[in-house]
Design a protein that fits this description.
single chain, 163 residues, two-stranded parallel ribbon, 17% strand, globular, disordered C terminus
Length: 163
């Protein structure tokens, strides 16, 4: 979860987001003025609806949202394994922390959001750009969506992935 400030309204905005650590693709996110279990579940449900979740391991910090009965029940029903990092060790969740740094440097600190809708739309565009056009040095300097497609082709067609 990352916290951002909307300049003109004076509100804090929270984003729950989920990254595929293998492809570096942001596979789910939810931006809101609130930071509750409901919002965390919305990001997770977006992820579940867009991915094959067999053998999925969800790694989170120790926020109350992720420790709640409701959240734990939902992931148990789906068969998702849940790992929580050690308290005060964000480096154990380095992939999402790196994305948050990129999000802040390349999007949040460059914009002045007028309201929550402007913020949501702008972040959605940024994530689309991040997933589909922005090269990543850790995955052969290609965008995450392209890398994912190449992995699927390798698994389905026997095409060799060069990374």
């Amino acid at each position: 979860m990352v916290q951002m400030y909307i300049d003109e309204s004076g509100h804090w905005v929270y984003m729950f987001d989920i990254i595929d650590v293998y492809t570096r693709e942001i596979v789910g996110h939810h931006v809101s003025l609130r930071c509750r279990i409901k919002e965390a579940l919305k990001a997770l449900k977006e992820t579940v609806n867009s991915l094959d979740i067999d053998n999925l391991i969800l790694k989170t910090d120790n926020g109350t949202q992720f420790r709640s009965r409701e959240f734990q029940k939902y992931i148990a029903e789906l068969g998702i394994d849940h790992e929580r990092i050690v308290v005060n060790t964000p480096e154990e969740n380095s992939h999402i922390e790196s994305f948050h740094d990129t999000l802040k440097r390349e999007e949040v600190y460059q914009k002045h959001y007028h309201n929550i809708l402007h913020c949501k739309g702008s972040i959605k565009e940024f994530i689309n750009e991040y997933n589909h056009n922005r090269p990543h040095s850790s995955i052969a300097s290609v965008p995450p969506a392209y890398y994912q497609k190449q992995l699927v082709n390798d698994l389905i067609d026997g095409v060799k992935v060069i990374a």
